[in-house]
Structures are given as structure tokens and as C-alpha cells.
Amino acid sequence: MFTNQRQGPPALLGMDILRLALERSKTAKEAVDNIIYFIERYGQGGKCGYTKNLKYHNSFLIADFENAWVLETAGIYWAFQKVKDVRSISNALSIRNDYDMKSKMIKREGIDFKKEFENQLITKFACGNFRQ
Questions:
Q1: Domain presence at residue 49
Q2: For the chain, how many structural domains are there in total?
Q3: Within a domain: 62
Q4: Rounded to an integer, what distance in angstroms lies between the CA atom of residue 29 and that of residue 17?
Q5: Of 79, 72, 75, 70, whose CA–CA distance to 46 is shortest?
Q6: Domain that holds residue 49
Q7: 52 in a structural domain
Q8: From CA 108, how far away is CA 98, in angstroms rounded?
Q9: Which GO terms describe its molecular function (predicted)?
Q10: β-pairing, 68-74 with 77-82?
Q11: Is 7 a member of any domain?
């Protein structure tokens, strides 16, 4: 996810967060809760490219046999939405104000998560909206 949130000091990469959630979760909802815990407690960021200094935040599509969730993040902020039909994720935020829950650190109610946190310029050049 290319967001408008500045990268802090090196922290957990998306793959680190994913591995930790898989190791510690029995259900998709537990994985959502674990990912939120890791992001709020340890942050996310760090060098995500081998030769380039690429940094980004993460989105997750998490499913088990009974439920599926989309969790999108921007730094320490997040919003998640239960999947009701068919969903995909890409490198563009997709959750608007139709989330099931958002970060408690976001004080305003009814916030449009995509509009508030997306870096629109980089998302445009990365064609993320086209792939959703």
C-alpha cells in the first residue's frame, strides 16, 4: 500500500507480520486481531526491495473455512471489512467508510479510509485502482 503516512524507523515487514499471524492464529478473525496487535505495538516498515529503497504499508486478505476479511493499513492506522461476496486486494486502498472496524487512533467517525490515507499520485502510477 502506498499511503501518505511517513515511514518510521525499520520495523516489521508485511511478510514478518503475515508469518507471525499464521503461527499464532487458529481463525481468520484471530489473524486480523494479531496483525493489528503487531502493527500497533511494533509498527511496520523497513526496506522492502533488494536493490531499491522501496518502502510501503500492507493490506491483507485473510480467510478460513467460515469467514474472510480485508485488513488495510497505513502506518499504525488500519481498517478491516468482512468479505460478503468476492474481493481482491492490490496495491491501492479499497476500504472507504464501509469498514466493520477502524483503528481507535482514528478519532473521526465515518472516515473514508482510502481518501484519508492513500498516496494518490503513487497509486495512480502503480495502477493499483485498475487492478481492484
A1: yes
A2: 1
A3: yes
A4: 15
A5: 75
A6: 14-126
A7: yes
A8: 14
A9: dipeptidase activity
A10: antiparallel
A11: no
